[in-house]
């Protein structure tokens, strides 16, 4: 392979990894390049049965639609801090007592992402049920039909 071809391959690999380096939660587009100050957490790899259950919970919650067997775990498989509650983080007592910045933020062993702004909550879903959408569409159609009827009646002849 020529030097130019290998340089091009490296460029495309870097570009591909930059594209892939974004939060894996469905609908979240945070990435390390655009948001370098955000914290990102690796999706747990299923190395033992406990970790397999945890990985299964993460994959289900982030909405990948993939099982543990089909998901590709790797260095770009992470979720951003936006999807974790404050109770999911370990406290750095030394930093708190000394009044220093916390530094590296760590998750508890059982932490699972639970905050997703891209998904409507159950109360929002009930408001936007298909029935209500159909009723709203039907009422708009009735108003439009009445409006068109009135325009026809009052047309200048």
Structure characterization notes:
The chain has 157 residues and is mainly α. The protein folds into two domains: 22-119, no CATH class; 121-157. The protein is built from five helices and two strands; from the N terminus they run αβαβααα. The chain has helices at 3-20, 49-62, 93-98, 122-127, 130-153, and strands at residues 40-42, 78-80. The chain has a two-stranded antiparallel ribbon. It is elongated. It starts with a helix and ends with a helix. Residues 13-19 have low confidence and may be disordered.
Give the number of helices. Answer: 5
Summarize the helix and strand pattern as letters: HEHEHHH
Largest sheet: 2 strands, antiparallel
Q: Fraction of residues in helices? A: 40-55%
Number of strands: 2
Rounded radius of gyration (Å): 25 Å
Shape annotation? elongated
Keywords summarizing the entry:
157 residues, 5 helices, 2 domains, two-stranded antiparallel sheet, mainly alpha
Concise description?
This protein is mainly α. It has helices spanning 3-20, 49-62, 93-98, 122-127, 130-153; strands at 40-42, 78-80.
Write the layout of secondary structure elements.
Elements: H1 3-20, E1 40-42, H2 49-62, E2 78-80, H3 93-98, H4 122-127, H5 130-153
């Amino acid at each position: 392979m020529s030097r130019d071809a290998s340089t091009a391959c490296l460029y495309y690999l870097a570009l591909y990894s930059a594209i892939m380096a974004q939060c894996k939660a469905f609908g979240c587009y945070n990435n390390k390049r655009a948001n370098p100050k955000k914290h990102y957490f690796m999706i747990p790899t299923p190395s033992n049965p406990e970790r397999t259950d945890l990985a299964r919970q993460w994959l289900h919650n982030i909405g990948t639609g993939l099982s543990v067997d089909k998901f590709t775990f790797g260095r770009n498989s992470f979720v951003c801090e936006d999807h974790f509650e404050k109770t999911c983080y370990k406290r750095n007592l030394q930093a708190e007592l000394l009044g220093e910045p916390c530094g590296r933020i760590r998750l508890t062993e059982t932490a699972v992402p639970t905050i997703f702004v891209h998904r409507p909550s159950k109360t929002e879903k009930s408001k936007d049920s298909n029935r209500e959408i159909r009723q709203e569409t039907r009422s708009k159609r009735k108003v439009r039909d009445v409006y068109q009827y009135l325009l026809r009646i009052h047309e200048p002849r």
